[in-house]
Amino acid sequence: MDVIKYKFVFIGFSTILTLAAVASMIGFGYKQGIDFAGGTLWQIQFAQTGATAPAVQDFLTKQNLDGVTVRPEGDQNAFSIQTQQLSEDQHVALASEIQQQFGSFTELSFSSVGPSIGSELRNGAITAFLLVLLGISLYVAFAFRKVSYPVNSWKYGIATLITLFHDALIPAGAFAFWGWRYGVEIDTNFIVALLVVMGFSVHDTIVVFDRIRENLLLAKNKNDLAGIINISIKQTFARSVNTSLTLMIVLVALYLFGATSLSWFTLMMLVGTLTGTYSSIFVASPMLTFFHKDVK
After folding, report:
1. Using one digit for the tens of pLDDT, what is the confidence trace for 21-43?
2. How many Å apart are CA 144 and CA 200, to the nearest integer?
3. What is the DSSP secondary structure assignment for residue 39, as one 8-state letter?
4. How many Å separate Cα 86 from the centre of its chain?
5. CA-CA-CA-CA dihedral for 275, 5, 140, 147, to nearest 10
6. Any residues with CB less than 8 A from the CB of 152 and at least 6 apart, and which?
7. Phi then psi for 103, rounded to 5 degrees?
């Protein structure tokens, strides 16, 4: 497997995907959930059949509520209601009106977030994401400090940072498209999914980098970086693929049989797992050759 020979093909493919993801985020934007925009999320389950999501949404809209969205949940006669922020008095009054219209129901959950709290959560999530990127890059640079030739240790950190951006942007771009096409909203689960994807990606990347480091320390001709990288990828390829397949099986099962409310975020993690596995082998490692002028 001569990955370095076709490195421009692999990196070019990743560049196209990354640009498409950025275009998706800019063009479609994101539909913010109540965690970031503020509002109320209310989950209820009716005792009897008969109520439908369109009927409940139409009824709530007539109550002069803004931004009403009603979706069926996995359980029978269960619905997820999202609307403007409701006070406790509004909550009690609206529950009484719903019961009169559709019959008795059980309240599964009720959460209300103000706009200011949502803004703080959004800013905190962005800060956490950027700090994780910086922290991982500094850690990789420190971990590879004993390998200074033919590639400086801090350049491993740069390659990792670029790879992490690649692995985060592609699923984030896919989520922007899903939001435009299917109305999927982002909330704190979106940030959690991104951080999980980054954690898996950097773990896979470090495994390959660590094998490159070991082979460099043993190599007689350290200038043959392309050959050393190819050998290292070959030695870790089966492990990387098997680890990814194991995780993907779990994610597919979670997507098919797990909670409906987490299905899109599970799908996002599945996309991130694919891109993370690809990037650790075909992006991060070949990128090291750009930092070594003798490699052709």
Report:
1. 999 999 999 888 777 777 888 88
2. 19
3. E
4. 30
5. 170
6. 291
7. 100, 175
Rounded Cα distance between 217 and 209, Å, is 12
- Residue 73: count of CB within 10 angstroms of its CB: 17
pLDDT digits (tens, 9 = 90+) for 197-222: 888 888 888 888 888 888 888 877 77
Q: Residue 280's closest CA among 193, 196, 199, 176?
A: 199
Report cis status (omega within 30 of 0) of the bond before 150.
Answer: yes
Bridge partners (DSSP) of residue 83 are 40
The secondary structure element, H or E, covering residue 42 is strand 39-46
* Whole-angstrom distance, CA of residue 147 vs CA of residue 203: 19
DSSP one-letter string for 81-123 = EEES---HHHHHHHHHHHHHHH--EEEEEEEEE-HHHHHHHHH
Length of the chain counted residue by residue: 296
What DSSP character marks residue 164?
Answer: H
User: Which residue carries 């962005």 as its tokens?
Assistant: 126
Torsion of CA 194, 199, 205, 211, to 10 degrees: -170
Q: What is the pLDDT of residues 139-178, one digit of tens each?
A: 887 877 766 667 777 888 888 888 988 999 999 999 999 9
Taken in order of first residue, the domains within the chain and their CATH numbers are: 4-34+117-291 (1.20.1640.10), 39-113 (3.30.70.260)
